[in-house]
Protein backbone atom coordinates (compact mmCIF):
# COMPACT_ATOMS: atom_id res chain seq x y z
CA UNK A 1 0.00 0.00 0.00
CA UNK A 2 2.72 2.40 1.02
CA UNK A 3 4.72 1.58 -2.08
CA UNK A 4 1.71 2.29 -4.30
CA UNK A 5 1.39 5.70 -2.73
CA UNK A 6 5.04 6.29 -3.37
CA UNK A 7 4.53 5.35 -7.03
CA UNK A 8 1.48 7.56 -7.43
CA UNK A 9 3.35 10.41 -5.87
CA UNK A 10 6.15 10.23 -8.43
CA UNK A 11 4.19 9.86 -11.67
CA UNK A 12 5.32 13.27 -12.81
CA UNK A 13 8.99 12.60 -12.34
CA UNK A 14 11.42 11.83 -15.14
CA UNK A 15 11.45 8.27 -16.43
CA UNK A 16 15.03 7.63 -15.37
CA UNK A 17 14.13 8.52 -11.88
CA UNK A 18 11.04 6.37 -12.08
CA UNK A 19 13.12 3.41 -13.16
CA UNK A 20 15.49 4.06 -10.31
CA UNK A 21 12.55 4.16 -7.97
CA UNK A 22 11.15 0.93 -9.37
CA UNK A 23 14.46 -0.74 -8.83
CA UNK A 24 14.59 0.67 -5.36
CA UNK A 25 10.99 -0.42 -4.93
CA UNK A 26 11.89 -3.91 -6.04
CA UNK A 27 14.70 -4.14 -3.55
CA UNK A 28 12.37 -2.92 -0.88
CA UNK A 29 9.83 -5.52 -1.93
CA UNK A 30 12.47 -8.22 -1.73
CA UNK A 31 13.48 -7.02 1.70
CA UNK A 32 9.88 -7.12 2.75
CA UNK A 33 9.51 -10.62 1.37
CA UNK A 34 12.59 -11.72 3.25
CA UNK A 35 11.60 -10.16 6.48
CA UNK A 36 8.10 -11.55 5.99
CA UNK A 37 9.64 -14.99 5.82
CA UNK A 38 11.57 -14.41 9.03
CA UNK A 39 8.55 -12.86 10.64
CA UNK A 40 6.50 -15.81 9.66
CA UNK A 41 8.78 -18.31 11.28
CA UNK A 42 8.99 -16.09 14.33
CA UNK A 43 5.23 -15.72 14.28
CA UNK A 44 4.89 -19.47 14.17
CA UNK A 45 7.14 -19.79 17.17
CA UNK A 46 4.87 -17.70 19.33
CA UNK A 47 1.56 -18.71 17.80
CA UNK A 48 -0.65 -20.63 20.14
CA UNK A 49 -3.84 -21.54 18.32
CA UNK A 50 -7.22 -20.86 19.93
CA UNK A 51 -7.98 -23.71 22.29
CA UNK A 52 -4.34 -24.60 22.75
CA UNK A 53 -2.32 -23.72 25.79
CA UNK A 54 1.01 -22.08 26.36
CA UNK A 55 4.00 -24.16 27.47
CA UNK A 56 5.07 -21.88 30.31
CA UNK A 57 3.78 -19.51 32.89
CA UNK A 58 5.68 -16.32 33.36
CA UNK A 59 5.12 -14.81 36.79
CA UNK A 60 6.05 -11.16 36.59
CA UNK A 61 6.06 -8.73 39.44
CA UNK A 62 3.74 -5.78 38.99
CA UNK A 63 6.03 -3.22 40.62
CA UNK A 64 4.17 -0.30 42.16
CA UNK A 65 0.82 -1.68 41.00
CA UNK A 66 1.35 -4.14 43.85
CA UNK A 67 0.07 -6.97 41.67
CA UNK A 68 1.37 -10.15 40.12
CA UNK A 69 1.12 -10.38 36.33
CA UNK A 70 0.71 -13.88 34.93
CA UNK A 71 1.65 -14.40 31.29
CA UNK A 72 1.57 -17.44 29.04
CA UNK A 73 4.68 -18.20 27.03
CA UNK A 74 5.51 -18.25 24.18
CA UNK A 75 2.35 -16.33 23.26
CA UNK A 76 3.08 -13.56 25.79
CA UNK A 77 -0.63 -13.32 26.47
CA UNK A 78 -1.51 -11.72 29.77
CA UNK A 79 -3.64 -14.33 31.50
CA UNK A 80 -4.24 -12.83 34.89
CA UNK A 81 -3.42 -9.97 37.19
CA UNK A 82 -3.39 -11.33 40.70
CA UNK A 83 -3.79 -8.65 43.35
CA UNK A 84 -1.18 -9.03 46.07
CA UNK A 85 -0.32 -5.79 47.87
CA UNK A 86 -3.06 -3.45 46.63
CA UNK A 87 -6.86 -3.55 46.38
CA UNK A 88 -8.54 -4.70 43.18
CA UNK A 89 -12.11 -3.63 42.42
CA UNK A 90 -12.70 -6.34 39.81
CA UNK A 91 -12.20 -9.23 42.19
CA UNK A 92 -13.12 -7.34 45.34
CA UNK A 93 -9.69 -8.03 46.80
CA UNK A 94 -9.43 -5.58 49.65
CA UNK A 95 -13.20 -5.02 49.62
CA UNK A 96 -14.55 -8.23 51.18
CA UNK A 97 -13.64 -8.84 54.77
CA UNK A 98 -10.93 -11.50 54.52
CA UNK A 99 -8.68 -9.77 52.01
CA UNK A 100 -9.51 -6.36 53.49
CA UNK A 101 -8.13 -7.50 56.79
CA UNK A 102 -5.10 -9.05 55.11
CA UNK A 103 -4.34 -5.81 53.25
CA UNK A 104 -4.61 -3.83 56.45
CA UNK A 105 -5.77 -0.59 54.82
CA UNK A 106 -2.79 -0.20 52.49
CA UNK A 107 -3.59 1.38 49.15
CA UNK A 108 -0.46 0.33 47.34
CA UNK A 109 2.56 -1.88 47.38
CA UNK A 110 5.75 -2.11 45.37
CA UNK A 111 6.43 -5.67 44.35
CA UNK A 112 9.78 -6.27 42.61
CA UNK A 113 10.80 -9.90 42.77
CA UNK A 114 8.61 -12.95 42.68
CA UNK A 115 10.11 -16.17 44.04
CA UNK A 116 8.46 -19.46 43.21
CA UNK A 117 8.95 -22.07 45.93
CA UNK A 118 11.69 -24.61 45.22
CA UNK A 119 12.52 -28.24 45.83
CA UNK A 120 16.13 -29.24 45.24
CA UNK A 121 16.81 -25.85 43.74
CA UNK A 122 14.10 -26.10 41.10
CA UNK A 123 10.65 -24.48 41.01
CA UNK A 124 8.05 -26.80 42.48
CA UNK A 125 4.97 -24.74 41.62
CA UNK A 126 3.42 -24.77 45.08
CA UNK A 127 3.60 -21.13 46.04
CA UNK A 128 5.05 -17.79 45.11
CA UNK A 129 6.55 -15.35 47.56
CA UNK A 130 6.61 -11.60 47.26
CA UNK A 131 7.81 -8.62 49.24
CA UNK A 132 6.64 -5.05 49.25
CA UNK A 133 9.37 -2.44 49.00
CA UNK A 134 6.79 0.30 49.51
CA UNK A 135 5.17 -0.78 52.76
CA UNK A 136 7.42 -3.46 54.26
CA UNK A 137 5.28 -6.54 53.82
CA UNK A 138 5.71 -10.09 52.58
CA UNK A 139 3.09 -12.22 50.87
CA UNK A 140 2.29 -15.83 50.11
CA UNK A 141 0.50 -16.53 46.82
CA UNK A 142 -0.98 -20.01 46.58
CA UNK A 143 -0.35 -21.33 43.07
CA UNK A 144 -3.23 -23.77 43.28
CA UNK A 145 -5.67 -20.86 43.22
CA UNK A 146 -3.44 -17.95 42.19
CA UNK A 147 -4.69 -16.12 45.23
CA UNK A 148 -2.83 -14.23 47.89
CA UNK A 149 -3.45 -16.18 51.07
CA UNK A 150 -1.23 -14.40 53.57
CA UNK A 151 0.41 -11.02 54.04
CA UNK A 152 2.65 -10.22 56.98
CA UNK A 153 4.07 -6.87 57.95
CA UNK A 154 7.79 -7.15 58.59
CA UNK A 155 8.95 -5.20 61.63
CA UNK A 156 12.32 -3.42 61.84
CA UNK A 157 12.80 -3.05 58.07
CA UNK A 158 12.58 -0.35 55.46
CA UNK A 159 12.03 -1.47 51.90
CA UNK A 160 12.56 -5.26 51.70
CA UNK A 161 13.82 -4.95 48.15
CA UNK A 162 16.26 -7.68 47.30
CA UNK A 163 13.67 -10.28 47.84
CA UNK A 164 12.19 -12.61 47.69
CA UNK A 165 14.81 -15.21 47.08
CA UNK A 166 14.21 -18.68 48.22
CA UNK A 167 16.59 -21.35 49.51
CA UNK A 168 16.84 -24.59 47.51
CA UNK A 169 14.26 -26.49 49.54
CA UNK A 170 12.18 -23.47 50.48
CA UNK A 171 13.46 -23.56 54.05
CA UNK A 172 13.33 -19.76 54.03
CA UNK A 173 12.95 -16.87 51.75
CA UNK A 174 15.09 -13.87 52.50
CA UNK A 175 14.24 -10.20 52.31
CA UNK A 176 17.11 -7.75 52.83
CA UNK A 177 16.38 -4.04 52.77
CA UNK A 178 17.04 -1.31 50.29
CA UNK A 179 16.99 1.48 52.87
CA UNK A 180 18.80 1.62 56.15
CA UNK A 181 16.99 3.19 59.09
CA UNK A 182 17.42 3.11 62.86
CA UNK A 183 16.07 -0.22 64.06
CA UNK A 184 12.35 0.07 64.58
CA UNK A 185 12.20 3.22 62.43
CA UNK A 186 12.73 5.56 65.37
CA UNK A 187 14.05 9.09 64.93
CA UNK A 188 17.80 9.58 64.66
CA UNK A 189 19.59 12.41 62.93
CA UNK A 190 21.37 11.54 59.70
CA UNK A 191 24.67 12.47 61.38
CA UNK A 192 24.28 9.26 63.33
CA UNK A 193 23.87 7.24 60.14
CA UNK A 194 26.98 5.06 60.32
CA UNK A 195 26.41 4.02 63.92
CA UNK A 196 22.67 4.01 64.40
CA UNK A 197 21.20 3.18 61.02
CA UNK A 198 21.06 -0.48 60.00
CA UNK A 199 20.20 -2.65 57.07
CA UNK A 200 18.14 -5.61 58.18
CA UNK A 201 17.66 -8.91 56.42
CA UNK A 202 14.57 -10.92 57.26
CA UNK A 203 14.30 -14.70 57.05
CA UNK A 204 10.70 -15.71 56.39
CA UNK A 205 9.49 -19.24 56.79
CA UNK A 206 6.78 -20.61 54.53
CA UNK A 207 4.10 -22.89 55.94
CA UNK A 208 2.89 -24.82 52.91
CA UNK A 209 0.15 -26.60 54.83
CA UNK A 210 -1.64 -23.44 55.83
CA UNK A 211 -0.49 -21.27 52.92
CA UNK A 212 1.15 -18.82 55.28
CA UNK A 213 4.46 -17.19 56.05
CA UNK A 214 6.06 -16.11 59.27
CA UNK A 215 9.04 -14.01 60.19
CA UNK A 216 11.59 -16.55 61.50
CA UNK A 217 14.49 -14.25 62.40
CA UNK A 218 16.34 -11.16 61.25
CA UNK A 219 19.98 -10.34 60.65
CA UNK A 220 21.48 -6.96 61.43
CA UNK A 221 23.55 -5.62 58.52
CA UNK A 222 25.69 -2.49 57.98
CA UNK A 223 23.89 0.70 56.88
CA UNK A 224 24.21 0.08 53.16
CA UNK A 225 21.66 -0.48 50.45
CA UNK A 226 21.06 -4.10 49.60
CA UNK A 227 20.12 -4.79 46.07
CA UNK A 228 19.64 -8.12 44.45
CA UNK A 229 20.34 -11.50 45.84
CA UNK A 230 20.30 -15.18 45.18
CA UNK A 231 20.59 -18.30 47.30
CA UNK A 232 23.38 -20.77 46.81
CA UNK A 233 22.61 -24.11 45.25
CA UNK A 234 24.31 -27.50 45.00
CA UNK A 235 27.89 -26.76 46.13
CA UNK A 236 26.95 -23.39 47.56
CA UNK A 237 23.78 -24.60 49.26
CA UNK A 238 23.55 -23.17 52.75
CA UNK A 239 24.90 -19.81 51.55
CA UNK A 240 23.23 -16.71 50.27
CA UNK A 241 24.60 -13.79 48.25
CA UNK A 242 23.48 -10.16 48.40
CA UNK A 243 24.71 -7.23 46.41
CA UNK A 244 25.21 -3.87 48.09
CA UNK A 245 25.75 -0.33 47.01
CA UNK A 246 26.19 2.83 49.00
CA UNK A 247 28.95 1.29 51.08
CA UNK A 248 30.01 4.96 51.10
CA UNK A 249 27.23 5.38 53.68
CA UNK A 250 26.02 8.53 51.97
CA UNK A 251 22.82 10.02 53.28
CA UNK A 252 22.08 12.58 50.59
CA UNK A 253 22.43 13.01 46.81
CA UNK A 254 23.10 9.31 46.47
CA UNK A 255 23.39 9.62 42.70
CA UNK A 256 26.80 11.14 43.25
CA UNK A 257 27.71 10.30 46.79
CA UNK A 258 26.90 6.61 46.63
CA UNK A 259 28.89 6.16 43.44
CA UNK A 260 32.33 7.05 44.78
CA UNK A 261 33.84 3.69 45.62
CA UNK A 262 35.41 1.63 42.87
CA UNK A 263 34.16 -1.43 44.62
CA UNK A 264 31.20 -2.17 46.83
CA UNK A 265 30.54 -5.63 48.19
CA UNK A 266 28.79 -8.86 47.64
CA UNK A 267 27.68 -10.08 51.05
CA UNK A 268 28.16 -13.79 51.38
CA UNK A 269 26.24 -15.23 54.29
CA UNK A 270 25.80 -18.68 55.69
CA UNK A 271 22.09 -18.88 56.44
CA UNK A 272 22.30 -22.44 57.73
CA UNK A 273 24.82 -21.30 60.30
CA UNK A 274 22.77 -18.27 61.25
CA UNK A 275 19.62 -20.36 61.70
CA UNK A 276 21.59 -22.71 63.97
CA UNK A 277 22.93 -19.82 66.05
CA UNK A 278 19.45 -18.37 66.44
CA UNK A 279 18.23 -21.82 67.45
CA UNK A 280 20.91 -21.85 70.15
CA UNK A 281 19.61 -18.56 71.49
CA UNK A 282 22.21 -16.24 70.00
CA UNK A 283 19.90 -13.32 69.35
CA UNK A 284 18.31 -10.33 70.98
CA UNK A 285 14.62 -9.71 70.69
CA UNK A 286 13.71 -6.52 68.86
CA UNK A 287 10.03 -5.65 68.49
CA UNK A 288 9.08 -9.28 68.88
CA UNK A 289 11.61 -10.58 66.33
CA UNK A 290 14.77 -12.61 66.96
CA UNK A 291 17.58 -10.36 65.77
CA UNK A 292 20.91 -11.96 64.96
CA UNK A 293 23.98 -9.74 65.01
CA UNK A 294 26.78 -11.14 62.82
CA UNK A 295 29.30 -8.74 64.34
CA UNK A 296 28.88 -10.52 67.64
CA UNK A 297 28.74 -13.99 66.10
CA UNK A 298 31.59 -14.09 63.63
CA UNK A 299 31.89 -16.77 60.98
CA UNK A 300 28.55 -16.46 59.25
CA UNK A 301 29.05 -13.45 57.02
CA UNK A 302 31.82 -12.24 54.67
CA UNK A 303 32.21 -9.42 52.20
CA UNK A 304 33.53 -9.86 48.68
CA UNK A 305 34.61 -6.66 46.88
CA UNK A 306 32.73 -6.22 43.59
CA UNK A 307 33.02 -3.44 41.01
CA UNK A 308 30.98 -0.32 41.15
CA UNK A 309 27.55 -0.38 42.77
CA UNK A 310 26.55 -3.91 41.80
CA UNK A 311 22.89 -4.41 41.00
CA UNK A 312 22.18 -8.13 40.68
CA UNK A 313 24.14 -11.09 41.93
CA UNK A 314 23.19 -14.45 40.48
CA UNK A 315 24.39 -17.95 41.29
CA UNK A 316 25.15 -20.33 38.41
CA UNK A 317 22.96 -23.45 38.04
CA UNK A 318 25.73 -25.71 39.39
CA UNK A 319 26.20 -23.38 42.36
CA UNK A 320 29.94 -23.04 41.67
CA UNK A 321 30.02 -19.32 40.86
CA UNK A 322 28.26 -16.11 41.75
CA UNK A 323 28.02 -13.47 39.08
CA UNK A 324 27.86 -9.80 40.05
CA UNK A 325 26.77 -7.02 37.71
CA UNK A 326 28.40 -3.69 38.50
CA UNK A 327 25.85 -1.30 37.11
CA UNK A 328 28.41 1.50 36.78
CA UNK A 329 31.08 -0.77 35.38
CA UNK A 330 31.21 -2.28 31.88
CA UNK A 331 31.96 -5.67 33.34
CA UNK A 332 30.27 -8.61 34.94
CA UNK A 333 32.37 -10.34 37.58
CA UNK A 334 32.40 -14.08 38.08
CA UNK A 335 33.45 -15.19 41.56
CA UNK A 336 34.30 -18.72 42.55
CA UNK A 337 32.49 -20.20 45.54
CA UNK A 338 35.31 -22.68 46.08
CA UNK A 339 37.91 -19.90 46.11
CA UNK A 340 35.75 -17.89 48.50
CA UNK A 341 35.50 -20.84 50.88
CA UNK A 342 39.26 -21.33 50.66
CA UNK A 343 39.86 -17.64 51.41
CA UNK A 344 37.55 -17.89 54.42
CA UNK A 345 39.43 -20.93 55.68
CA UNK A 346 42.81 -19.22 55.27
CA UNK A 347 41.53 -15.92 56.68
CA UNK A 348 42.71 -14.36 53.45
CA UNK A 349 41.22 -10.95 54.26
CA UNK A 350 42.08 -7.57 52.77
CA UNK A 351 40.53 -5.71 55.68
CA UNK A 352 37.16 -5.21 57.29
CA UNK A 353 34.14 -2.97 56.91
CA UNK A 354 31.62 -2.26 59.65
CA UNK A 355 33.21 -5.07 61.66
CA UNK A 356 32.80 -7.66 58.91
CA UNK A 357 35.78 -9.37 57.21
CA UNK A 358 36.44 -8.45 53.58
CA UNK A 359 37.86 -11.30 51.50
CA UNK A 360 40.77 -10.60 49.21
CA UNK A 361 39.35 -9.72 45.78
CA UNK A 362 42.15 -11.41 43.85
CA UNK A 363 41.67 -14.61 45.79
CA UNK A 364 37.97 -14.90 44.98
CA UNK A 365 37.58 -13.48 41.46
CA UNK A 366 37.49 -16.06 38.69
CA UNK A 367 37.02 -13.78 35.67
CA UNK A 368 35.68 -10.44 34.55
CA UNK A 369 33.56 -10.36 31.42
CA UNK A 370 33.45 -7.25 29.23
CA UNK A 371 29.73 -7.22 28.54
CA UNK A 372 29.01 -3.57 27.83
CA UNK A 373 27.40 -0.65 29.63
CA UNK A 374 24.97 -0.92 32.49
CA UNK A 375 24.82 -4.65 33.31
CA UNK A 376 22.02 -5.33 35.80
CA UNK A 377 20.98 -8.96 35.95
CA UNK A 378 22.10 -12.37 34.69
CA UNK A 379 20.20 -15.55 33.87
CA UNK A 380 21.36 -18.97 32.71
CA UNK A 381 20.51 -21.64 30.15
CA UNK A 382 21.02 -25.42 30.07
CA UNK A 383 24.15 -25.25 27.89
CA UNK A 384 26.51 -23.44 30.20
CA UNK A 385 25.75 -19.94 28.96
CA UNK A 386 24.84 -16.80 30.82
CA UNK A 387 22.72 -13.88 29.64
CA UNK A 388 23.24 -10.41 31.01
CA UNK A 389 20.94 -7.48 30.36
CA UNK A 390 22.44 -4.04 29.71
CA UNK A 391 20.43 -1.01 30.77
CA UNK A 392 22.52 1.64 29.06
CA UNK A 393 23.39 -0.25 25.87
CA UNK A 394 19.86 -1.71 25.54
CA UNK A 395 21.20 -5.15 24.77
CA UNK A 396 21.19 -8.68 25.99
CA UNK A 397 24.61 -10.30 25.99
CA UNK A 398 25.14 -14.02 25.78
CA UNK A 399 28.42 -15.26 27.16
CA UNK A 400 29.90 -18.61 28.04
CA UNK A 401 30.49 -19.45 31.67
CA UNK A 402 33.55 -21.62 31.07
CA UNK A 403 35.40 -19.58 28.48
CA UNK A 404 34.13 -16.18 29.57
CA UNK A 405 33.75 -15.34 25.86
CA UNK A 406 30.94 -13.13 24.63
CA UNK A 407 29.02 -15.21 22.05
CA UNK A 408 26.27 -12.89 20.88
CA UNK A 409 24.53 -9.60 21.53
CA UNK A 410 20.99 -8.65 20.62
CA UNK A 411 19.30 -5.25 20.68
CA UNK A 412 16.21 -4.82 22.81
CA UNK A 413 13.80 -1.90 23.02
CA UNK A 414 14.86 -0.38 25.35
CA UNK A 415 16.93 -0.49 28.53
CA UNK A 416 16.74 -3.92 30.00
CA UNK A 417 16.01 -4.18 33.70
CA UNK A 418 15.73 -7.82 34.60
CA UNK A 419 15.94 -10.85 32.38
CA UNK A 420 13.92 -13.98 32.92
CA UNK A 421 14.82 -17.28 31.27
CA UNK A 422 12.94 -20.54 31.65
CA UNK A 423 14.07 -21.76 35.07
CA UNK A 424 16.84 -19.19 34.61
CA UNK A 425 17.76 -18.93 38.30
CA UNK A 426 17.33 -22.59 39.22
CA UNK A 427 19.52 -25.70 39.20
CA UNK A 428 17.64 -26.81 36.11
CA UNK A 429 17.31 -24.06 33.48
CA UNK A 430 15.30 -24.80 30.33
CA UNK A 431 17.21 -22.92 27.64
CA UNK A 432 14.31 -22.21 25.31
CA UNK A 433 13.12 -18.67 26.01
CA UNK A 434 14.41 -15.51 27.57
CA UNK A 435 12.37 -12.40 28.27
CA UNK A 436 13.98 -9.02 28.66
CA UNK A 437 11.86 -6.85 30.94
CA UNK A 438 12.50 -3.41 29.54
CA UNK A 439 12.08 -0.13 31.32
CA UNK A 440 11.47 2.13 28.36
CA UNK A 441 9.23 1.40 25.35
CA UNK A 442 9.29 4.77 23.51
CA UNK A 443 8.17 4.11 19.91
CA UNK A 444 7.34 0.40 20.18
CA UNK A 445 3.56 0.66 20.44
CA UNK A 446 0.79 2.98 19.25
CA UNK A 447 1.13 6.11 21.30
CA UNK A 448 -1.28 6.66 24.14
CA UNK A 449 0.08 10.03 25.13
CA UNK A 450 2.91 10.92 27.43
CA UNK A 451 2.68 7.74 29.48
CA UNK A 452 4.08 4.73 27.71
CA UNK A 453 3.75 1.13 28.81
CA UNK A 454 6.70 -0.94 29.87
CA UNK A 455 7.82 -3.52 27.35
CA UNK A 456 8.90 -7.11 27.28
CA UNK A 457 11.00 -8.66 24.54
CA UNK A 458 10.76 -12.38 23.92
CA UNK A 459 14.03 -13.90 22.75
CA UNK A 460 14.55 -17.39 21.40
CA UNK A 461 17.74 -18.66 23.05
CA UNK A 462 17.60 -22.24 21.81
CA UNK A 463 20.21 -21.67 19.08
CA UNK A 464 23.76 -20.34 19.07
CA UNK A 465 22.51 -16.87 18.13
CA UNK A 466 19.76 -15.21 20.08
CA UNK A 467 16.68 -14.26 18.13
CA UNK A 468 14.30 -11.50 19.12
CA UNK A 469 10.90 -12.93 18.29
CA UNK A 470 8.17 -10.72 19.71
CA UNK A 471 7.41 -8.03 22.18
CA UNK A 472 4.46 -7.11 24.28
CA UNK A 473 3.53 -4.06 26.35
CA UNK A 474 2.81 -4.33 30.00
CA UNK A 475 1.36 -2.19 32.74
CA UNK A 476 3.75 -0.71 35.28
CA UNK A 477 6.00 -2.20 36.24
CA UNK A 478 7.48 -5.62 36.01
CA UNK A 479 10.91 -5.81 37.59
CA UNK A 480 11.72 -9.48 37.82
CA UNK A 481 9.83 -12.47 36.45
CA UNK A 482 10.22 -16.23 36.69
CA UNK A 483 9.25 -18.67 33.98
CA UNK A 484 8.01 -22.09 35.04
CA UNK A 485 6.97 -25.14 33.06
CA UNK A 486 3.16 -25.21 32.87
CA UNK A 487 3.19 -28.89 33.89
CA UNK A 488 4.44 -27.92 37.32
CA UNK A 489 1.36 -25.91 38.19
CA UNK A 490 -1.72 -27.76 39.36
CA UNK A 491 -4.72 -25.55 39.89
CA UNK A 492 -8.05 -26.05 41.62
CA UNK A 493 -11.03 -25.06 39.49
CA UNK A 494 -13.85 -25.25 42.01
CA UNK A 495 -13.66 -24.97 45.78
CA UNK A 496 -14.92 -28.04 47.56
CA UNK A 497 -18.33 -27.95 49.14
CA UNK A 498 -17.26 -27.55 52.74
CA UNK A 499 -20.31 -27.79 54.97
CA UNK A 500 -18.28 -26.86 58.05
CA UNK A 501 -17.14 -23.58 56.59
CA UNK A 502 -18.11 -20.59 58.68
CA UNK A 503 -20.98 -18.54 57.25
CA UNK A 504 -21.46 -20.87 54.27
CA UNK A 505 -24.96 -21.77 53.09
CA UNK A 506 -25.09 -24.53 50.53
CA UNK A 507 -28.72 -24.59 49.45
CA UNK A 508 -31.25 -21.94 48.49
CA UNK A 509 -33.57 -23.38 51.15
CA UNK A 510 -31.10 -22.53 53.90
CA UNK A 511 -30.55 -18.90 52.97
CA UNK A 512 -31.65 -16.69 55.85
CA UNK A 513 -31.20 -13.35 57.54
CA UNK A 514 -30.42 -12.94 61.24
CA UNK A 515 -30.67 -9.76 63.23
CA UNK A 516 -28.51 -9.19 66.32
CA UNK A 517 -29.25 -5.70 67.61
CA UNK A 518 -28.29 -3.36 64.80
CA UNK A 519 -26.22 -6.00 63.03
CA UNK A 520 -27.86 -7.74 60.17
CA UNK A 521 -26.30 -11.00 58.96
CA UNK A 522 -27.36 -12.14 55.53
CA UNK A 523 -26.50 -15.80 54.90
CA UNK A 524 -27.17 -15.84 51.20
CA UNK A 525 -26.37 -17.84 48.09
CA UNK A 526 -25.52 -16.89 44.54
CA UNK A 527 -26.36 -19.27 41.73
CA UNK A 528 -27.31 -19.01 38.09
CA UNK A 529 -29.15 -16.67 37.85
CA UNK A 530 -30.32 -15.26 41.15
CA UNK A 531 -29.43 -14.30 44.65
CA UNK A 532 -31.31 -15.87 47.52
CA UNK A 533 -30.89 -14.02 50.78
CA UNK A 534 -33.95 -15.25 52.63
CA UNK A 535 -35.66 -18.50 51.59
CA UNK A 536 -38.71 -17.89 53.80
CA UNK A 537 -39.48 -14.49 52.34
CA UNK A 538 -41.75 -13.92 49.37
CA UNK A 539 -39.06 -11.47 48.22
CA UNK A 540 -36.07 -13.80 48.65
CA UNK A 541 -33.59 -11.46 46.94
CA UNK A 542 -34.33 -8.39 49.04
CA UNK A 543 -32.52 -7.31 52.17
CA UNK A 544 -34.42 -4.93 54.40
CA UNK A 545 -32.25 -2.95 56.76
CA UNK A 546 -32.65 0.11 58.93
CA UNK A 547 -30.61 3.28 58.77
CA UNK A 548 -27.68 2.87 61.17
CA UNK A 549 -27.45 -0.93 60.74
CA UNK A 550 -24.29 -2.81 59.96
CA UNK A 551 -25.08 -5.36 57.28
CA UNK A 552 -22.91 -8.43 56.73
CA UNK A 553 -23.46 -10.14 53.41
CA UNK A 554 -22.13 -13.71 53.73
CA UNK A 555 -22.58 -15.02 50.21
CA UNK A 556 -21.77 -18.52 48.98
CA UNK A 557 -21.51 -19.27 45.27
CA UNK A 558 -23.15 -22.71 45.18
CA UNK A 559 -22.49 -23.26 41.49
CA UNK A 560 -19.97 -26.05 41.33
CA UNK A 561 -18.86 -25.51 37.74
CA UNK A 562 -15.60 -24.31 36.30
CA UNK A 563 -15.43 -20.57 35.65
CA UNK A 564 -18.92 -19.75 36.93
CA UNK A 565 -18.08 -16.71 38.98
CA UNK A 566 -20.70 -14.40 40.42
CA UNK A 567 -20.14 -10.79 41.32
CA UNK A 568 -21.84 -8.74 43.98
CA UNK A 569 -22.11 -5.02 43.42
CA UNK A 570 -24.28 -2.61 45.35
CA UNK A 571 -25.35 0.30 43.21
CA UNK A 572 -24.23 3.62 44.63
CA UNK A 573 -22.38 1.97 47.46
CA UNK A 574 -18.77 1.85 46.27
CA UNK A 575 -18.61 -1.88 46.95
CA UNK A 576 -18.11 -4.85 44.68
CA UNK A 577 -16.59 -8.30 45.02
CA UNK A 578 -16.49 -11.62 43.23
CA UNK A 579 -17.34 -15.06 44.51
CA UNK A 580 -15.64 -17.96 42.78
CA UNK A 581 -17.50 -21.29 42.51
CA UNK A 582 -17.71 -22.93 45.91
CA UNK A 583 -16.42 -19.87 47.80
CA UNK A 584 -18.03 -17.95 50.63
CA UNK A 585 -17.21 -14.26 50.93
CA UNK A 586 -18.31 -11.67 53.46
CA UNK A 587 -18.88 -8.00 52.78
CA UNK A 588 -19.51 -5.62 55.65
CA UNK A 589 -21.52 -2.48 54.89
CA UNK A 590 -22.48 0.31 57.27
CA UNK A 591 -25.83 1.57 56.04
CA UNK A 592 -25.90 5.08 57.38
CA UNK A 593 -28.26 6.53 54.81
CA UNK A 594 -31.77 5.45 54.00
CA UNK A 595 -32.58 4.63 50.40
CA UNK A 596 -33.13 2.02 47.74
CA UNK A 597 -30.00 0.34 46.48
CA UNK A 598 -30.09 -2.25 43.71
CA UNK A 599 -27.76 -5.22 44.13
CA UNK A 600 -26.54 -6.91 40.99
CA UNK A 601 -24.23 -9.65 39.80
CA UNK A 602 -21.25 -7.96 38.19
CA UNK A 603 -19.73 -11.01 36.53
CA UNK A 604 -21.52 -12.21 33.40
CA UNK A 605 -22.54 -15.72 34.40
CA UNK A 606 -25.44 -16.90 32.25
CA UNK A 607 -27.89 -15.75 29.59
CA UNK A 608 -29.98 -14.43 32.46
CA UNK A 609 -27.07 -12.64 34.14
CA UNK A 610 -28.80 -9.26 33.76
CA UNK A 611 -31.72 -10.67 35.75
CA UNK A 612 -29.46 -11.60 38.65
CA UNK A 613 -30.35 -8.67 40.85
CA UNK A 614 -31.90 -7.80 44.19
CA UNK A 615 -32.40 -4.86 46.50
CA UNK A 616 -30.94 -3.45 49.63
CA UNK A 617 -33.75 -1.38 51.14
CA UNK A 618 -32.69 0.93 53.92
CA UNK A 619 -35.62 2.25 55.89
CA UNK A 620 -35.23 5.66 57.52
CA UNK A 621 -34.85 5.73 61.29
S1 LIG B 1 15.46 -4.14 40.70
CU1 LIG B 1 13.98 -3.32 39.25
S2 LIG B 1 15.21 -3.79 37.40
CU2 LIG B 1 14.05 -3.86 42.16
CU3 LIG B 1 15.13 -6.12 40.65
CU4 LIG B 1 16.74 -4.51 38.86
CU1 LIG C 1 -24.15 -14.21 38.49
CU2 LIG C 1 -23.87 -12.76 36.74
Automatic annotation (TrEMBL):
InterPro entries: CcO_II-like_C, Cupredoxin, N2O_reductase_N, Nitrous_oxide_Rdtase_Sec-dep, Nos_propeller, NosZ/Cyto_c_oxidase_sub2, WD40/YVTN_repeat-like_dom_sf. The keyword Oxidoreductase applies. Its EC number is 1.7.2.4. Residues 517-621 form the Cytochrome oxidase subunit II copper A binding domain. The keyword Metal-binding applies. Keywords: Copper, Metal-binding, Oxidoreductase, Periplasm. One of its GO terms (cellular component) is membrane. Pfam families: nos_propeller. It is found in: Periplasm. One of its GO terms (molecular function) is copper ion binding. PANTHER family: CYTOCHROME C OXIDASE SUBUNIT II (PTHR42838), NITROUS-OXIDE REDUCTASE (PTHR42838:SF2). NCBIfam families: nitrous_NosZ_Gp (TIGR04246). This is Sec-dependent nitrous-oxide reductase. It comes from Lentibacillus cibarius. The lineage of its organism: Bacteria, Bacillati, Bacillota, Bacilli, Bacillales. The gene is nosZ.
Amino acid sequence: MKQLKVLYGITGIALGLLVAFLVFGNTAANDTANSDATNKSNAEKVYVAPGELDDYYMMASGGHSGQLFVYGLPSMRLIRQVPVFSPDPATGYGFEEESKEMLGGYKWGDFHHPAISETEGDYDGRALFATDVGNNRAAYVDLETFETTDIKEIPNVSGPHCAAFVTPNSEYFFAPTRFSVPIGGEYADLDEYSDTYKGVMTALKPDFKNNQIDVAFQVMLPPWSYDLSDAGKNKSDGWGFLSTYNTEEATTTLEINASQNDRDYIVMFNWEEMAKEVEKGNYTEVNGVKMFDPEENSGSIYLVPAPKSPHGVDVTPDGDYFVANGKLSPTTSVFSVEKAKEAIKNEDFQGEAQGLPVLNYDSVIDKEIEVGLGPLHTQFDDKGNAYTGLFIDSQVVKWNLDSGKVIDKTEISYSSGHLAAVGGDTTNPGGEWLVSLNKISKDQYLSVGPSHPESMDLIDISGEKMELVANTPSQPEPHYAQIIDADKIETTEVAEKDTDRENAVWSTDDAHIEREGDELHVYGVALRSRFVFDAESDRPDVVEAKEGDTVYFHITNIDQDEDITHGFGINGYNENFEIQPGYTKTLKVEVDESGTFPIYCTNFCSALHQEMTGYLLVEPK
